């Protein structure tokens, strides 16, 4: 059975993409710790990041770094947070989010999808996509 991330990548579920190539996709999470919170995901369904090939792991991190730079530029934050948890979806992914302190590292503080401002999400996706494309 496909993961929810595969369904987003394959267009079966909606997603706000900020980057996509043949092996990696980056899209906003529906439960952000801050607007701009992006998931960087391999297209291939691999449960644990430790099981990714070294080449795919390197590329996933290259994309995460580009998204992180874009987050800092777009949101004017001190840093871009980087977190691997992986318990909520059995598909390897990196959380990259705006960070001025450690609060974003606690995913239990993420916004409920029903309380997210859709216009802010759309704006974040557009601005990040443009910034990522400019750095590529």
UniProtKB/TrEMBL annotation:
Domain HIT stretches: 4-109
Residue span of motif Histidine triad motif: 91-95
Superkingdom, taxonomy of origin: Bacteria
SUPFAM superfamilies, sorted: HIT-like
EC number: 3.-.-.-
GO molecular function: hydrolase activity
Keywords in alphabetical order: Hydrolase
GO biological process, one term: nucleotide metabolic process
PANTHER family membership: ADENOSINE 5'-MONOPHOSPHORAMIDASE HNT1, HIT FAMILY PROTEIN 1
Designated name of the protein: HIT-like protein
Organism: Corynebacterium glaucum
